[in-house]
Amino acid sequence: MRPKIRNTTAHIIQILYGNGNMDKAVLAGLRHSITLMSPQAQVAWPVIMANLAEGDLSRNGEPTAAETAVFTALKLYARHQQGNQGLVYGSVKDDEGISLMAALAQMSHKKGNQTRIDNRVNQLLKVTNINSVINALSHLVDIVQTSQQPIDYAQLAEDLYWFQQSYEQANRVRLFWGQIYYRPVKALEEEK
């Protein structure tokens, strides 16, 4: 397990949210950056680098799996937070939030949403390249942005970290996401 990726991401989100006094400059930089190496991302480097463990920091200018995972989760959080005054982050562990896939599953069961969301989720579950995953996740966060449902972006960071470790780990993460997306809401509906 890599709970430090999860804990680090949660800590940075709390810093950026600032109890409602959001760091708008960093959030804007995150939203407008494509990768951690983008010039727009530089505004977020101090908070990211200061909070990652020494072993998770790059020594050669090539982002590590941890840097990429945390940056991506923060970028997605910043996209979701845009235009929302309340905190759109919550932890599944504390029953304050749900996973991105669970939120999408709930939204897909509203009239007219299922095909559109299913298609986007299916695209995500088919890709094996981290850059394609990041792109697909960006589109999915745009879908949940209209929701005030807090999302566990720290768990997403941990998932993204593991996705980058090996092909087998990427398959496990995709299966985990599929299990969350396809099982819970449908199983609950069948019980009712």
UniProtKB/TrEMBL annotation:
<dbReference type="Pfam" id="PF09485">
    <property type="entry name" value="CRISPR_Cse2"/>
</dbReference>
<dbReference type="InterPro" id="IPR038287">
    <property type="entry name" value="Cse2_sf"/>
</dbReference>
<protein>
    <submittedName>
        <fullName>Type I-E CRISPR-associated protein Cse2/CasB</fullName>
    </submittedName>
</protein>
<dbReference type="InterPro" id="IPR013382">
    <property type="entry name" value="CRISPR-assoc_prot_Cse2"/>
</dbReference>
